[in-house]
């Protein structure tokens, strides 16, 4: 009692044995102190200390009584369990003793059991003989049943014949199972049984032959006698049930009778598949005489659609739902058709046949005309079917189609151009439109063919449309190149024999108008597309080919006019020209004759020809002037030449104004400017006038100025040198869009003075 807690702690065995108790006690004391410090932290609260003590004592006594009752119930349960274990142990000892006594008795009776073995064998033999005796009536009736079954088959009584077949198979299988169970199924026994039941296999084959014949002609039987088809399906389901049940039977596990499993349900679908292939996909259209692919595909469409409707409306009712016959039949037709189309595509098809295949595969087959027909919905889902042809195959067919169409277009357009070329040498003028412009049927024929091929391609797909359109534009570009070559050949023939092409200019004008018509048609062709985003501009190479052909025809027309002007311009300038205005009058008549014909070309080329004609006349006039055919001998001749040039310029200007060319668009004013330089009285003024002229016409060269000064006949070497030096010191830069005047005029090179013995001239 007088010992402190520190002295008692190391000697307490309970605390050494249960350290958790010490820890729990410390925690409890700590919690109690915390609780007491919270309750009695003020002096006036100590008055209730007695009440708290009484309440806690009552609470502790209640907890202790509950703990005691709980421990007491656990102890009672443990004592009861121990008693039961003791009684079970005693019973186990008793059972062990009983088993040991039984084992001793069995060991002493083993010899007695061995003496019963002959009796056991006799009992087994008796059971077997009893089984055989029971089966004897059925065995004796085997041949009679076989005969009856064959007779029933001949009379199309399939269900009854199949019942006999199942009865015979059951008898045979029962014998085989019994022999197998007793390990008596030797090869000899098996051979004897098969020999006795040899007619059973023939009956099975005959029944199967009848069944597959019925299944193969199922479409016809749906309208004539569907009961036969139903009987065949019932027999197939019976056999399928037997095939499923045999492996599950407890007797003779793992043993199957001969001919099992038959797999007649699988054979049912195989026969239908073979029938579909033989009926529709056996003959390749190219091998059939007089049968085109479009007609063949149309007949195939109607036949397959009719069979699918028959299967959906009639045959499905004759089969179990598990067959899912309409889906299976649809897959068979789809797969067979896919294979058959590849056989067709293996041939060398022309463009019409390729178009027929693509149009049928991409548009007819998945449409309401065939697989999406209202009569087949909703059982047949077109979206669930794979494409008949892969995307690569379709792309290959489209490319092949484009190649064949391209060859056809190229050949046809070449023949069209040859016919057009022959017409150019005809006696009559080409046709005129409502404006009086010459034209031929060439652009109409060419664009009609291209447009028809593009419209046909649009019926297949947008990709084929784009391919054919690109091909058509490329062929048109090649055609324009051939047209340009034909124009060159036409000119060559005209130069060789002008009488053979009396309408030379008229057909050149018609060629220009034809190119304009083609340009308008090409623009419409390029802007039409499967969608606004697909529209595109005319290829630059095609525009270049068009422009080349048009300019070639215009050049030939201007060359023809120049050819008629050359004899007249050969006498210009001359002494006679100075005094005879009739020469320029003759030139104007030739110009007027040619240029009036240019109005038969459509705008803007009529104006282009008019403007180029005026520029050509000006160029040839200035060129003739600078050839130094005449050199003025005195001021009077210079004055006379200036006056003549001014009159010529005025006459030509009036002519072209009357023909429709505005004065502001003419270049003839250069003649008037040149005459001012020639008419100038004081040659020293040339040093001031020539630079101004050069500024106005920056493409004039030193040679041009030199020859002009030579024509005057009064310019000294010093003045000429000063003028040329001023030009060298003030080089001119050609402005943008400058129309050349002198750069296209070739003049003779100035004569180099002959010097002998002077090193500086060497």
Please tell me about this protein's structure.
With 762 residues, the chain is an all-alpha fold. The chain is 71% helix and 1% strand. The chain has helices at 5-8, 13-17, 19-39, 49-114, 117-140, 142-154, 158-181, 187-196, 198-216, 218-224, 226-245, 264-280, 293-313, 325-345, 351-364, 391-423, 442-458, 462-496, 504-527, 540-569, 575-579, 582-598, 605-625, 635-659, 669-679, 686-696, 702-712, 717-729, and strands spanning 431-432, 438-439. Strands 1-2 form a two-stranded antiparallel sheet. A hairpin with a 5-residue loop joins strand 1 and strand 2. The longest helix has 66 residues, at 49-114. The termini are far apart. Residues 1-15 and 753-762 have low confidence and may be disordered.
Q: Compute the number of helices.
A: 28
**Nearest-angstrom radius of gyration?**
60 Å
Fraction in helix: over 70%
Which ranges are low-confidence, i.e. pLDDT below 50, for 5 or more consecutive residues? 1-15, 753-762
C-alpha end-to-end distance: 155 Å
Q: What about the largest sheet?
A: 2 strands, antiparallel
Mean pLDDT, rounded to whole units? 81
Q: Strand pairing plus helix content: what structural class?
A: mainly alpha
- How many β strands by DSSP? 2
Strand percentage lies at: under 5%
The order of strands across the largest sheet is 1-2
Shape: elongated
Order of helices and strands: HHHHHHHHHHHHHHHHEEHHHHHHHHHHHH
Brief summary of the model shown:
With 762 residues, this protein is an all-alpha fold. It contains 28 helices and 2 strands.
